[in-house]
Amino acid sequence: DTVTIGGITGTVSRIRIRATTLVDWDRKEQIIPNKTFVTQDLTNWTLSDSITRVILQVGVAYGSDMDQVQELLTEVARSNERVVDDPAPAVFCVGLGDSRIDFELRVFVKDPLEIMPLSHEIHAAVTHALRQAGIEIPFPQRDIHVRTVADT
Fold first, then answer.
1. Which of 4, 34, 40, 56 has its CA 20 to 30 A from that of 22?
2. Where does the pLDDT of residue 148 fall: very low under 50, low under 70, confident under 90, or very high at 90 and above?
3. Residue 30: HSE in the Cβ half-sphere, 13 Å Cα cutoff
4. DSSP letter for each residue of 2-62
5. Residue 151 belongs to a domain
6. Collapsing DSSP states into helix, strand and coil, what is residue 93?
7. What range does the domain containing 24 cover?
8. How do residues 67-111 score in pLDDT, each as one tens digit?
9. Are both 62 and 116 inside the same structural domain?
């Protein structure tokens, strides 16, 4: 099983009388006292279903065609082989930021180990698709007004 407890995520590699050993994503062994499993919140990522949701943030410039952005993000998700068909990917506009329109791309993967490769692939594909469509990914901008003060 892959679990998260006390801020540590890893795969259970050994269960003993006093402690359980988790191997984290860096392949380090974390020894967790068994009482921790009873006294703290525990997330088991693979107990009955290993399918996991991933939420990716995407920001586009004001003035972008929101319907086109939603279509592009949906197509990017559907064309990635790591994304499962059921539940289907979904795209939502979630906010209007200081310098961008914020979208969330919500997809599901078969295994938590696929989250990082998927994230890379989706971000690369989104960047490419938006560039091809002429849609700008903005960066924070600030206007600076310089005033001079006359000597008194």
1. 56
2. confident
3. 20
4. EEEETTEEEEEEEE-SSEEEEEETTS-EEEEEHHHHHHS-EEETTSS---EEEEEEEEE-T
5. no
6. strand
7. 2-44
8. 999 999 999 999 999 999 999 999 999 999 888 999 999 999 998
9. yes
